[in-house]
Amino acid sequence: MVKFITSACLFLEAAHAASVYSRSVHMVYALSDRLGIPSITDQQYLDAFDKGAVTALVPFFLNVANPDSFATMIGEVQKRNITIVPGIGKAPDALGDMDAPEYLAMAEAVKKYTDYVRIENMQGFYDMHGKTGMQNFMDHCKELGYKHIMMNPWPKAENGSLVVFDCPQCDAVFDSVVAKRKPDGSLKRDPDNWHVSVKDIDQVRAAVPNIPVLINYESPGPQKILTEMEQAKLGSSLDAFKTTVGDITGRYKSYGLHWAPPLTQSYDSIGLKTWDWIANELKTITPPSK
């Protein structure tokens, strides 16, 4: 499905990515050249990263055209050997296809800070525009020297098969937990909620064995639901997280999945005072090297 040069290359890239993503956080520091959560200071962020021994921030930047304006914070993050995985791609009807000049320029602007990039809303882009624009964006990233491209998510064709790309650098995917909702967006009572579904993961792994998979909570919908739950009853969002972590460390342990808890506008784990629990859980799932 995604062409790799050799099986040895695939194994080494997968192992490297697994190490990078061992304690990932779904975190948006800057969104379209403004701070994601202005009420949180840089030092609060850095203290939180230290407490969780965070290894990757995904996406950190979301559609940021001028990352240089955040160079001081980038430097502090890099001092901690934390990988930045900027996300690029708005709603599919916002700027056109993924090879729009604005998206190509974003990839160029942030390259000096990272070898990683994440393509956003890939299913939406495929449904509206097909795969050509995304392939052109991937090719542009390869020309710029990006070594790692994350797919969010890996899109499917009308027949349910994975869309085929020529992208040896595509070496990680994002996948969301189950959160079944009513037509009005509220959570529907269902025993599968907050659990991991491996149906799509099995399909991806059949195409690219060992590809790292980050498990998160879709934003804004389910993350806003988690915020409302926590505000209504302290600890209720942690119960949801425990369900997810239980799957990752229990029945799906052999999959080697990476939990990516949220620190976003939709679920501000610092403001909600749930970060300490999240940080300890990240270190429990994958203890830092001594």
Secondary structure elements and pairings:
Elements (H helix, E strand, L loop, with lengths): L6 H14 L3 E8 L2 E2 L6 H11 L3 E7 L8 H9 L3 E2 L2 E2 L12 H10 L5 E4 L2 H8 L2 H13 L3 E4 L18 E7 L22 H9 L5 E4 L4 H12 L3 H14 L8 E2 L2 E2 L11 H11 L5
Parallel strand pairs: 1-3, 1-11, 3-4, 5-6, 6-7, 7-8, 8-9, 9-10
Antiparallel strand pairs: 1-2
Helix pairs in contact: 2-10, 4-6, 8-9
Describe what you observe in this structure.
It is a single chain. The chain is built from ten helices and eleven strands. It has 290 residues and is an alpha/beta fold. The strands form two sheets. The chain has a six-stranded parallel beta sheet with strand order 5-6-7-8-9-10. Strands 1, 2, 3, 4 and 11 form a five-stranded mixed beta sheet that branches. Helix 4 (101-110) runs parallel beside helix 6. It is globular and about 45 Å long.
Task: Record keyword descriptors for this entry.
290 residues, alpha/beta, six-stranded parallel sheet, five-stranded mixed sheet, 10 helices
Mean pLDDT across all amino acids: 92
Beta percentage is 15-25%
What order do the strands of the largest sheet run in, or round the barrel if closed?
5-6-7-8-9-10
Q: Number of helix segments?
A: 10
Separation, N- and C-terminal Cα atoms: 38 Å
Radius of gyration from the CA trace?
A: 18 Å
Largest sheet, if any?
A: 6 strands, parallel
Order of helices and strands: HEEHEHEEHEHHEEHEHHEEH
Name the shape in a single word. Answer: globular
From the helix content, strand content and strand pairing, which structural class follows? alpha/beta
- The tally of beta strands, per DSSP, is 11
Uncertain segments of ≥5 residues (pLDDT<50)? 4-16
Helix content: 25-40%
